[in-house]
């Protein structure tokens, strides 16, 4: 997920590309551009997303295969 001032984008990344994405998102806030391989939600095809890192406030990889945290308080 990429977050900027007033916007959020969620993309699926191809399996096995986690390390590449982690490397790229370390550039958040810097005055440079980068490329991420992401999966187009309409076609399922892998595409290249160009990112202006200066416009991104934060980024995170969310494991979609994980289960929600268990709430011990219930």
Walkthrough of the structure:
- The chain has 74 residues and is mainly beta.
- It is built from 1 helix and 5 strands; from the N terminus they run ββαβββ.
- The protein has one helix spanning 18-25; strands at residues 2-4, 7-9, 33-39, 46-52, 58-59.
- A 3-stranded antiparallel β-sheet has the order 2-1-5, with no helix packed on it. It has a two-stranded antiparallel ribbon with strand order 3-4.
- A hairpin with a 2-residue loop joins strand 1 and strand 2 (7-9).
- The longest helix has 8 residues, at 18-25.
- The chain is globular, with a radius of gyration of 14 Å.
- The protein starts with a strand and ends in a 15-residue tail after the last strand.
Q: So what's the overall shape?
A: globular
Average pLDDT score = 88
Q: Ends: how far apart?
A: 30 Å
Measured on Cα atoms, how large is the radius of gyration? 14 Å
For the secondary structure, the number of strands is 5
Structural class: mainly beta
The proportion of strand residues reads 25-35%
Query: How many individual helices?
Result: 1
Order of helices and strands: EEHEEE
Biggest β-sheet description: 3 strands, antiparallel
Task: Give the spatial strand order of the biggest sheet.
Answer: 2-1-5
Helix content: 10-25%
- Taking pLDDT < 50 over at least 5 consecutive residues as the criterion, the unreliable ranges are none
Break the fold down into its secondary structure elements and pairings.
Blueprint: E1 2-4, E2 7-9, H1 18-25, E3 33-39, E4 46-52, E5 58-59
Antiparallel strand pairs: 1-2, 1-5, 3-4
């Amino acid at each position: 997920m990429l977050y900027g001032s007033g916007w959020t984008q969620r993309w699926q990344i191809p399996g096995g590309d986690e390390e590449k994405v982690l490397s790229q998102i370390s550039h958040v806030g810097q005055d440079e551009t980068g490329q991420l391989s992401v999966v187009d939600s309409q076609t399922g095809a892998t595409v290249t997303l160009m990112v202006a890192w200066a416009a991104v406030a934060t980024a995170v990889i969310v494991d979609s295969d994980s289960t929600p945290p268990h709430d011990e308080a219930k």
